[in-house]
Amino acid sequence: MHERFHAPFSQEVSSLEEMRQRVLEKIKVAKDHALDVASEGDFIQRYSDMCDMEWLPNPPPDFDPLALREMEARVLQAIAKAETLVEFRILLENVGMSAEEAVLCVEHENAHVNVTEQKDTHVFRGYGVIFFKEGEEIVSAQPVALSDKKDGVNMVSFLEDKIEILKAPDLYGNETSEDDKREIEKVQNILKLHKGILSQ
Predict the structure, then answer these.
(1) Closest CA to 22 of 75, 90, 106
(2) In a domain? residue 37
């Protein structure tokens, strides 16, 4: 009697290859819609400013929630999204990271996600890489963990949880990045504005 043990392994390899092909297609689409730092530089800066305005206790008159949603739709076109950690690692390894760099990045972003999923103020939307180009050349591919404020949530609670999420890598033996530190400082300043109004 001869037993075969190859089928499960073959199926696993086939499944990983199919996943890799899906990821490569996502990368292609995102690169085709990469944000151009030259021709869309003003748009990128305006989008960043509008995101900050959304969290302010009294957004300025030029803040337009509908315009922000439209801008978000454009930004999402430039993101290759991964639904799982395995997909995310494959994604990272196919945008120029070594296997070791990809593992470290996955650990860092997953630390943010672990804390995000513990908070009832946030909705996790997946992992991804956002692409930037200059002319026809891709000049940057930045890993991101995507999340949104849950509808109806108190802004103070949301901002307090956001700070904990940004500090999450320290809890998991990783390291808070310089980008995380800048974002923490920004969110802390916005939180102070909200608390200042509440204390009046």
Answers:
(1) 90
(2) yes
One-letter amino acid identity for 143? P
User: Could you tell me the pTM of the whole model?
Assistant: 0.86
Closest CA to 160 of 191, 116, 124: 191
Amino acid symbol at 112: H
Q: Is residue 163 part of a domain?
A: yes
Interatomic CA distance for residues 76 and 194, integer angstroms? 29
* DSSP tag of 58: S
Asked, for residue 126, whether it belongs to a domain, the answer is yes
**Quick check: is 1 in a domain?**
no
Tens-place pLDDT, residues 15-63: 889 999 999 999 999 999 999 999 999 999 999 999 999 999 999 999 9
